[in-house]
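Researcher: Can you fold this with flavin mononucleotide in place?
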Amino acid sequence: MKELIDIITERRSTRKFTDQPIEQEKLDLILKAALMAPSSKRCTPWHFVVVEDANDLQTISESRQMGSAFVSGAKMAIVVLAEEEKSDVWVEDASIAASYIQLMAESLGIGSCWVQVRNRKKNDEETTENVLKKLLNIPDGLRAECVIALGYKGEEKAPFDQSKLKLDRIHRGQF
Ligand SMILES: Cc1cc2nc3c(=O)[nH]c(=O)nc-3n(C[C@H](O)[C@H](O)[C@H](O)COP(=O)(O)O)c2cc1C
């Protein structure tokens, strides 16, 4: 079992994936981790849509002008949503759950990358969020924060270089 500090150090964004399927047990653990994420007042406003269909992954990959193309090569993607009415801090709630997904995936040897959805556009007429809402039949009242692309790693990346830690960003006592 890896220590959390090793998982955090080794997690890098994976944008190239192999064809190897993700085992159901691993997916279950990833989703369980998301459902155990903290949320404001424990209001658990999130919903997660697991997308595996190749055509749907392709549509997601085209939902932005840049920054999402690699999703078509992912084995699956988890769309992270939240009920806006349930939480005035749904962005934070959804983001923490997304981070849990990424860390749990890494601990299981599965690569991931965050694709921003909120505040992003496909083009001048359509938001990325709307593309996903139509594609996945997402009801009104739900907001989309991001998509986490998942799959076994098809690229090697060096772990975080700890000599580059921005230690000057830490302020103790006073700024
Ligand atoms: C809020 C947020 C939004 C991001 N959006 C995207 C994105 O749309 N497309 C993408 O390829 N990577 C995206 N990323 C991944 C970052 O580019 C990546 O985490 C960062 O460059 C550091 O690299 P690392 O994850 O390999 O350490 C996003 C990450 C975060 C936290």
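Model: Folded with flavin mononucleotide in place. The two ends are 38 Å apart (CA to CA).
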